Amino acid sequence: MQIREIHERLGARGALPCHVRRLLRRWSQALPPGHGRLRPEDVPPQSARAEFAAIEAELAGLATVAAEHPGEDGSARLLVRLADGQTVESVLLPRDGVCVSSQVGCAVGCVFCMTGKSGLLRQVGSAEIVAQVALARARRPVRKVVFMGMGEPAHNLDNVMEAIELLGTVGGIGHKQLVFSTVGDERVFERLPQGPVKPALALSLHTTRPELRAQLLPRAPRIDPADLVELGERYARATGYPIQYQWTLIEGINDGPDELDGIVRLLAGKYALMNLIPYNTVDGDAFRRPSWERAAEIARGLHRRGVLAKLRRSAGQDVEGGCGQLRARMLGSEAT
Ligand code: SF4
């Protein structure tokens, strides 16, 4: 379901935009029924009431939690079942954040990602994206929404932008607290600056070498990492928020001195933060995670050379590792 459909259906029954906004606010913020005092002008016309009730019932059934796995770090992984039976993952993050999925599967095929192995199964509707936030809010406060779950948001841009617009308005999330995470796509740099709600941007870089990037992210747009950083810098300066660069550290692949020199060359002096995330080793996988000490040394080295770098664990790593692994395990257990 798309948010634009809700506006169209209710508008056709004579509901005013303020009535629709009220419904969307209550739903997206998971407010209790009857929240707030109703003024006479807030009551939808008789002609629209049945449609309001029908839409509220549809919104309530858009997404349900099929499994919940709390982590030791205060996070929790949710396996979210959509109305057609497909599943996506959301992660409740420590400090009032939620990570949501924008696609079922993903076409980019990053070699270190479980989600990428399934290919793209379908797009997640804009209302299904917001429903993940509403599910999270029914469990704990949410002040930050990151689009870093399953899927590449740039490949579902209309729906993701629609969800961002709702969350950044009636959804009550600060614009800087909405984080659009992408491998980099020209359309993102064209469209995001035009939207009424401008999210912060996270760019998955992973290497400074174009040929290695083509191997690690096989179906990402072929944008030279140096050009990607230039596009990111322009967006950061225009919005006033730094770009977060994501770098999955893989031992012997992208943790050597040549890459660190490349990061310094591209990012020193930029309005940027480098997040280093040690690879989450999966059984039978060809890639290895560097030791925490080695990763910490890399972060310190970058810092000394003028790049703001942070070492991060991916949230809920003790539960089911990286994005897509909980879903993969649940599908495996359903198949047996
Ligand atoms: Fe897609 Fe992100 Fe996984 Fe890459 S890391 S395959 S972009 S979900």
From TrEMBL:
Molecular-function GO terms, alphabetical: 4 iron, 4 sulfur cluster binding; metal ion binding; RNA methyltransferase activity
Xref: InterPro entries: Aldolase_TIM, Methyltransferase_A, rRNA_lsu_MTrfase_RlmN/Cfr, rSAM, rSAM_sf
A GO CC annotation given for this chain: cytoplasm
Top-rank taxon, per record: Bacteria
Cell compartments where the protein resides: Cytoplasm
Homology family: Belongs to the radical SAM superfamily. RlmN family.
Residue ranges constituting the Radical SAM core domain according to the UniProt record: 92-318
Stated name of the protein: RNA methyltransferase
GO term, biological process aspect, one: tRNA methylation
Required cofactor(s): [4Fe-4S] cluster
Native source organism of the sequence: Derxia gummosa DSM 723
Keywords per UniProt: 4Fe-4S, Cytoplasm, Disulfide bond, Iron, Iron-sulfur, Metal-binding, Methyltransferase, S-adenosyl-L-methionine, Transferase
